[in-house]
């Protein structure tokens, strides 16, 4: 009996020790202070991330059409260069300069905004003149750039006549008759812009062109949107370009800006003064004026 009693006492003691150790370990874990996690604000997150780079489509000859997006606000502004390719190569350089600026100064974008830059909407036209794919600088441009070659895509279509606003198979550029494609959006580059717009539903769009030193409002058959006039005036005042509500130098059909107006998206055309200059400070002032308008 005494042996049984001793054994029971030992077993009880072991169980008690195990329970005590278990309770002690549980107490340690319950009272352990977790390492402090620093709080990261929304603005700090934006400051520390680069742009979201996406390939949104390809040209006739398979060259990439890139988009660079910054910020995560609700109001989406889109800036597009190079729809006339190598003929307006300076608009592509301007767009890449803007990308560089946003990389270095992300805080310039108000928290309410998301900004997308599509630097080259006609990469085949650029390649025809520059002989280089992707990014380039003014140093890569031949000393003498031909006038018409490079304006059109590889199908010899003027992309800024291939959109669905009063489209006609032939349109006008200065005193010349140009091909507008076989139907609205017959060209892959125009489809890329269309699909991007319909998917993302931007609040406003800016196209960079050259060379008349002015800001134009967009319109289609229903006239000019009131907000289009407001952003035209904001960009023009800040940049010191002329503000011109209606383009009347010659009749155009099927332009991208007009199509955007027809679906209710305020759009302006910013024309640089020459085919060679970027006029960075003027355009940065105009861009900031739009940021201020929409913030």
TrEMBL record:
InterPro entries: Peptidase_M14. Residues 31-294 form the Peptidase M14 domain. SUPFAM superfamilies: Zn-dependent exopeptidases (SSF53187). This is Peptidase M14 domain-containing protein. The keyword Transmembrane applies. GO terms for molecular function: metallocarboxypeptidase activity; zinc ion binding. It comes from the Bacteria. Its cofactor is Zn(2+). Pfam families: Peptidase_M14 (PF00246). The chain crosses the membrane at residues 9-29. The active site is at 271 (proton donor/acceptor).
């Amino acid at each position: 009996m005494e042996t049984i009693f001793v054994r029971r006492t030992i077993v009880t003691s072991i169980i008690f020790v195990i329970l005590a150790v278990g309770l002690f370990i549980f107490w340690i874990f319950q009272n352990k202070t977790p390492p402090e996690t620093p709080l990261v604000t929304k603005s700090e997150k934006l400051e520390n991330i680069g742009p979201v780079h996406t390939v949104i489509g390809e040209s006739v000859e398979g060259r990439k059409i890139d988009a660079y997006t910054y910020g995560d606000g609700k109001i989406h502004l889109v800036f597009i260069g190079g729809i006339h390719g190598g003929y307006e190569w300076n608009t592509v350089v301007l767009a890449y300069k803007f990308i560089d600026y946003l990389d270095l100064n992300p805080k310039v974008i108000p928290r309410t905004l998301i900004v997308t830059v599509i630097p080259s909407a006609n990469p085949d036209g650029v390649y025809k003149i520059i002989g280089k794919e992707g990014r380039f600088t003014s140093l890569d441009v031949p000393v003498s750039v031909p006038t018409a070659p490079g304006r059109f895509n590889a199908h010899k279509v003027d992309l800024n006549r291939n959109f669905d606003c009063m489209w006609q198979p032939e349109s006008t550029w200065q005193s010349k008759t140009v091909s507008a494609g076989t139907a609205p959006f017959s060209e892959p580059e125009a489809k890329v812009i269309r699909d991007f717009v319909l998917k993302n539903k931007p609040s406003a769009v800016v196209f960079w062109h050259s060379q008349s030193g002015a800001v134009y409002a967009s319109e289609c058959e229903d006239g000019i949107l009131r907000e289009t006039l407001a952003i035209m005036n904001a960009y023009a005042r800040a940049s010191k370009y002329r503000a011109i509500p209606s383009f009347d130098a010659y009749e155009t059909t099927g332009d991208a800006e007009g199509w955007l107006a027809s679906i209710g998206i305020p759009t302006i055309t910013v024309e640089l003064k020459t085919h060679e200059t970027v006029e960075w400070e003027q355009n940065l002032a105009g861009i900031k004026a739009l940021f201020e308008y929409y913030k």
